């Protein structure tokens, strides 16, 4: 029997190590390297240097050009000419020289690491390279390598990183003489760091880059390049048939124009990859009928067909692989899909709703007594704000840091994998220093909390994900009773991040028993009883043992979980105590990979038959709850509280002296604030909630809570919710009082009494929507349900009115459209307005007439829009390949865009986008980027950053009268904006770092600002010029006169590279033209001209018989 147990444990260990894939690359599977003798000898690079030009017997073909020698650098890059490499800090992609960069970073090899390279013609190595190429590119079966260049960076350290943070990676270039393929290899657990400390004081950390650059400037980048997600390459998605960690590029003679990217497009690709995260995100189409819904994977398969991933940004056939259709086998590894509106942890955590759009796409808004709650649909489970497929595996990412046995560690990543339908979880942290790695394996709560989230529930019980939706705080204290040592665990789960992954941040501190490296750590099957001590609060107290080597060490575990639950959900299963059975535990630390790994099964059951609930009649007092320990009722203080005498009943619990930053004890509706008087950080309830911070409940309004008890209101009052959603009694018009007692105001004299026939809402106010009130209306004053201010509907069903309030800046960032509040005195700090998973939002503009934001998605090839408040997201134009710049003529109701893939400028009618678009300019365009319009003048303006001839051009809106406005002293004119107040055209140049303006006729050119690091997009708002800056990765602004240049703090939760930017005015500028009235008499598109007249045109797809302009 013991042998069977050991055999099973070994099998589970293997599963734990592989995390669902059986083909992870190991260091031993790299191409042989470091050979100092024999038939083929490696060249060694020392002291962080660069090799001399190394001659090749078979040339490398890169984007059609042959190179007969290479230069290998210790900085993780291969070049073909002698250049001053610098670092990614001053040499960002796109590079100005051809290069192959598996991991371009500020690497130091003076004291650590070895860099080697050689050319080989051994047949077994040629066969191995050919196999990779043929598996990655099936239509290249005729390719046969004649030589391979093998370069390896082994255990290298980045500048400013600890010397135990070491990376190993390899590049193999397979060459036939006429074609070449680059193969990047990243062994599992061997990419520990992705950033280095800047060599310039005060500058941010610098991320490594990975990709290929040709002499033509075209770029192919790897997923995660330029971000911390580069560390996921060893476990990320790879070309079909290849092991994890192997990435292949066709670099020789592909269809270069289609397969590779321009330097500017490469930056888009890098940012798109950043948001893909560890998994390659599958782009789901938008349902036009339900714009906020996400189409299921099965439907996407049916409509789009099966996609075949290639593990890079391009497919071999030359089309960009931005939205592969999910394969059946992949669905087990994909995280839950989210509705675009579920953007923040706060929204994800609150399961109340007014209509289905506030719930997950796979959930419904169910009516309960006193209100409504989100509930997952058939085949899914969660709390309604987050729903996951019961049959699909899930992933969880996060950060881990802490201090254990006096050793600090930071910047470790968490990678969890969950087999949902089996209740099995795998938890992995890396890099964890060897000094604490083995000891960490004794702290099981860092992993068992994930087991509670996904445990298989029985008899209607709810596991952690069903209760919390993945948004909760978890604190645990492990006490080793014999040694007196203890460790405190604080963990915040924030729901889904922008990569559609569950996310968590873990911190632990304390001391644990010493574990000798190599000692086995075993946990027996055991159970933990979880009890709901109050709504949104769960506690547990348990005892168990951990076996270290041959020694059994007892410990106690005290846990507290706080979250936000729907107050209207009266499901009795919520209050039932549940027992988590943990079994088949594996706990292992791998020194070579510096990886901490756990695996376990979890199951939730009710108390056993005949067991009594020992806590049923126990009053533990304030800030305390009852838990069962060894069949006895035990009172314990809530997280953040402590007692001097644990034997008193009720328990006297007072606030612990530790800060909430450490205790992680704040309620889900509270924040951790600094308290100077207390000398520590304390929990404080948010606005609209009351309590001590560790527990918060909605504030009551003056009239009392009448939502559940409408009878407490006076007969001349009604129950109404305020702007915070709090219910209170409010006297009818013509009456005054506190709502519970109302009297005639005395100002109406003969005011007609309200009429309330049987069946009206006066007698049954519950028939009104929660955002409505039963009030007298009409000439006779009959009682009827009416939506409250800010809502619309018939009173029985109300939804929030879309906001049309402007006065802010909107910008695009990764998958998000983000609001930047610019009023420093306002409490509004902005935030994410709309998120579409998988998109890369670039250009953005505003329709100030109908209060819409429009933006381009170059990953999904669409132009989308939403209201100013982020609602009503929908795709309005499809098959728009790469619209980098957008501009709207709000007077004529037209939208213009530049397409850098097709090198043209097009226009469509905002009110009839389905009719199609008209290409107005398609000649002599090289790299069109920004575009701006002047409706009253009937002109358009655009930038073309063609490196050999950069310029700013203008034309009439129909494309006629085209001319160059500026073409001198330009570098990379990326950004462009029209100032309607001064009739100026302003631009920002990423090549010469200038912000300049010129009159619309080309005169009076003047410098506004010098020192713009790498501007991408620009807008004018009031008296300032704003631009997105890739160099600062921020939004910058300067006054129109050139003074007061300053950065702007991005909203909390925004991350990634900033792209387009637009001003959202309070009201439209006063402009007019010949198309302002009746569409200028045109049937389709009306284009105003500089002459004051208009030109009627038809969309390109309209036949001659229909085009009667």
From TrEMBL:
LDL-receptor class B repeats lie at residues 851-892, 893-937, 938-982. Disulfide bonds join 666-683, 768-785. It comes from the Eukaryota. Residues 392-614 form the Nidogen G2 beta-barrel domain. Residues 1-24 form the signal peptide. The keyword Signal applies. Gene3D superfamilies: Green fluorescent protein, Laminin, TolB, C-terminal domain. Keywords: Calcium, Disulfide bond, EGF-like domain, Extracellular matrix, Glycoprotein, Repeat, Secreted, Signal. It is found in: Secreted, Extracellular space, Extracellular matrix. One of its GO terms (molecular function) is Wnt receptor activity. One of its GO terms (biological process) is canonical Wnt signaling pathway. Residues 347-357 have a biased composition (Polar residues). Residues 656-697, 702-743, 757-799 form the EGF-like domain. InterPro entries: 6-blade_b-propeller_TolB-like, Cueball_EGF_LRP_Nidogen, EGF, G2_nidogen/fibulin_G2F, GFP, Growth_fac_rcpt_cys_sf, LDLR_classB_rpt, NELL2-like_EGF. Residues 102-254 form the NIDO domain. Residues 301-317, 336-346 have a biased composition (Low complexity). Residues 265-291, 319-335 have a biased composition (Basic and acidic residues). GO terms for cellular component: plasma membrane. Residues 258-360 are annotated as: Disordered. It holds the Pfam family NIDO. This is Nidogen-1. It comes from Hypsibius exemplaris.
